[in-house]
Amino acid sequence: MKIAIVGAGTGGTKLIELFNDIKETEIVGVIDRNMQSAGIEYARKLGIRCSTDISEIDSACEMIIEATGNVSVLESLRERYGSSKHIVDSITAKLMMFIVDKQIEMRDRLNFQLEEINKTSESLHFEMNNMVKITEKLNGINTDLAQSAMQSNQFIEKTDEMTKAVNKITQQIKILGLNANIEAARAGEHGRGFSVVATEVQKMSDSTSEFASQISDLLNSLRAENEKISSEVSKLGILSENQDTITHKARNIADELKNI
Question: Where in this chain does the record put each Methyl-accepting transducer domain (predicted)?
């Protein structure tokens, strides 16, 4: 629909804004005696034809909106164009302007809310990125702990094997000491000195066996503690994976909000 607006004051300017944003309407002219009014300047920027005389309204115009509120202007429009065009009086124009004001108010409020959402989403996005970095560090620490626990288990196993070997050697030494005592007893007086050495060897064997037993007990305790650590590391890994999943979902939501 082709429209002409008579009056380019505050109300007329709002009407220009309103109808310029509607694809189905085209403003073919703006009429005002003051060619320096805000509405005229705005219309010129939009490339709309401006004039000071109602007689210059485009013949293709279908509707004329009287926005001055001047009764004589309205009468002149009716006399000249009443039979060929639809004339909208200032009261109806004021209703249109009221609607425009409400639309602008709603638009500004919506823009403000969108800006707040955007700010919030940017902050959320920043925090989510920090959480992702922290989660990645936790994953790295968890991996290191798991590797350390594995290496510790390997060390315990090797030490346990060495302890078993020491126990085996100790038993052999003990048997040798026992055999030496038997041979010393057979030798009588001549084997007395050798008997003393054999006895000391047996004592050393007993001490070594006891020490090896203590080491074995310590290794068993270490193994039990290491299993607990491995179990906790495994739980930490699961929690870390869950946190990583949640963090990525939250970051995706923040990205969607940011793109609104």
Answer: 157-260
- Confidence label for 225 from pLDDT (cuts 50, 70 and 90): confident
Degrees to nearest 5, angle at CA 70 with 69 and 74:
95
Split at pLDDT 50, 70, 90, the class of 37 is: very high
Domain count within the chain: 2
* Residue 242: inside a domain: yes
Residues 242 and 127 in one domain: yes
Looking at the fold, whether 43 and 128 belong to one and the same domain comes out as: no
For 145-168, what is each residue's pLDDT tens digit? 777 777 777 777 777 777 777 777
| Structural domain range at position 179 | 115-258
pLDDT, tens digit, for every residue of 79-106?
999 889 999 988 887 887 787 778 778 8
What is the C-alpha to C-alpha distance for residues 4 and 53, in angstroms, rounded to an integer?
12
Q: Is residue 201 exposed (0-12), middle (13-18) or buried (19+ Cβ within 10 Å)?
A: middle
* Helix extents (H) in the chain: 10-20, 38-45, 71-81, 90-187, 192-258
A 10 A CB-CB count for 142 gives 19
Cα–Cα distance, 180 to 205 (Å, whole number): 13
CATH number at residue 186: 1.10.287.950
In a shared domain, residues 77 and 126: no
